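Write out the 3D structure for:
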Amino acid sequence: MRKMLDHLSDVAAYQCAPDRKFISAEHDEIAQGMTTDIYFIKTLEILRHMGLAQTSVTAEIFARHSGIFAGLQEAAALLAESDVEVWALPEGESFAPKEVLMRIHGPYEEFGLFETPLLGILASSCGWATAAHEIMQAAGDSKVTVFGARHVHPAVAPVMEHAALIGGVNGASCVLGAKAAALEPVGTAPHALFLIAGDTVRGAVAYDECMPESSARLILIDTFKDEAEESLRVAEAMQGHLAGVRLDTPSERGGVSAELVREVRARLDMAGFPEVTIFVSGGLTPERLIELKAAGAAAFGVGSYISGAKPIDMTMDLKEVAGKPIAKRGRIPGITKNDRLQRIK
């Protein structure tokens, strides 16, 4: 049985260890209610004083605007030890503004403390999954890997990439993000390899020599020379082993343009390397992805568009108290019908 931080005396007594390594919450701390807002602890204190903490209630969670539903795995885990019934939309489903995404029924004391983390889990996860869905709508049948871990705090990087996978991307580069989805992480090698090796071809040949067969020979070719020239050098040196070239040209050099993709594609074809694909990364949006795909790019790595997605605001409302329909002003009392919800607890 977990020890809940649900009394004001618990809050007053708690002190962060002076040698705490990270400020981010640990799993047990989330499960104990330590990431909630203080006013929910105050509310429980008052309700206990009134003898009402065990009042049976029904709560509904809805979103302010449309999106893709994600975060259910963590939300369900947060409520796993609570004596409540839970219904929710399946992960990966699209939802409409104000549609009920989750319904919780049981004594308020069993779950009221978790309103803050529940809404946070769903808001962030749905935001990331929705951005990933937008990317995949633009990508069509092209493969997309999420490269967003470097743009967020490491404590949430695997959560973000897991949500992106729910949103439809094909792979994740963050080790824990991929593993949490029972996948192997996807990625090639950064500019650092080639800068230290001193030459793109030298680094590419070494990659081919020491990486397992399961690791695609996808080589970054914008470190030293013109991308089209470097693509041909690498393709010729790797003697049929090269699966693709990656373009990640920095903004200081104009970024990856449709014209650059067309040229690299044309020169590879003319040199007898039509099987070598073009993988593009760096500041991609759905609009840019469509343009680059039309120019000949076959696959993409997307980071900040997904990782920087705005959370989708979530709200939890009590709709029944002690079996009677109720709601605050502006909301309709009673359970909101949604046949898409499934019982998960």
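The chain has two domains: 8-126+311-343, 127-307.
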